[in-house]
Amino acid sequence: MLLDNKTAVIYGGGGSIGGAMARAFAAEGARVFLVGRTQEKLDKVASDIQAAGGLAETAIVDALDERAVDDYVDSVAAQASRVDISVNVISHNGLFGPLLQAPAEDFAQSLGSVAKTFLITTKAAARHMTKQGSGVILHFGGSDNVPMANMGNVQIGFDLVESMRRQWGADLGPSGVRVVTLRTGGIPETMPDSEEMAPMKQQMIDGTQLKRAATLADVGNVAAFVASDRARSMTTTQVNISCGALVD
């Protein structure tokens, strides 16, 4: 299997994206540690993994609390002997709408939280990865060279994370640590199943070159490959799994 004897920490592991990655990692042999704020959601993903014969553990940790994250990752490293994969897909307070109407304090606070959690979780993993001489830090979302109107601070937040990804890649590369982002262009099955959302889902599909959108299974499968040693030459880059919706 691709991830035999690997240890993965997933912040936001109870969500749709984090859960998809966790299930795929576990199916490929990884031991997954699911971190989040809602025990019920974490337990659901862990139960699915365990029912399939995989290894999963859960913990409630505030990904904006540096000491709590450091202590938790140290405990994972002590328990599993290493930290191989770190993923942060926690939800952010995105402010959609024109920047002209954006409340300055809310705008700054939201972006500050994005920068803070990615700095904290990456530092916690990198301390162990640099010592062991290997590791993979995965981001999700990516940036786009063609901005859309009324995205508020959402795309700016993605761009911020990508800027940090490039810097982390340069800083950590000499120690054998890789940093990669997955881009999808949107996943219809993560959106509410309602009449109001149906046209947007179809528009998302119609906007792809393959006339189908990426699925959660696609996200998990590609993430497992990127996190594996078979992708050991990939770092400081984005992996486009948008079915052609995002043209590089």
Kindly describe this structure.
- The chain has 7 helices and 7 strands.
- The protein is an alpha/beta fold and 248 residues long.
- The protein has one domain: 3-Layer(aba) Sandwich (Rossmann fold).
- Strands 3-2-1-4-5-6-7 form a 7-stranded parallel beta sheet, sandwiched between helices.
- Helix 5 links the parallel strand 5 and strand 6.
- Helix 3 packs parallel to helix 4 and helix 4 (104-132) runs parallel beside helix 5.
- The radius of gyration is 18 Å and the shape is globular.
- The mean pLDDT is 92.
List keywords for this structure.
single chain; 248 residues; alpha/beta; Rossmann fold; seven-stranded parallel β-sheet; 7 helices; 44% helix; 15% strand
Structure in a nutshell:
The chain has 248 residues and is of the alpha/beta class.
Question: Strands, helices and their partners?
Answer:
Layout: E1 7-11, H1 16-27, E2 31-36, H2 39-51, E3 55-60, H3 66-80, E4 85-88, H4 104-132, E5 135-140, H5 154-172, E6 177-183, H6 198-206, H7 216-227, E7 237-240
Parallel strand pairs: 1-2, 1-4, 2-3, 4-5, 5-6, 6-7
Helix pairs in contact: 1-2, 1-7, 3-4, 4-5
| Number of DSSP strand runs | 7
Distance between termini? 31 Å
CATH architecture: 3-Layer(aba) Sandwich
The CATH superfamily is known as NAD(P)-binding Rossmann-like Domain
- Structural class category: alpha/beta
Under CATH, the topology can be stated as: Rossmann fold
Mean pLDDT: 92
Specify the helix fraction band.
40-55%
Ranges where pLDDT stays below 50 over 5 or more residues in a row are: none
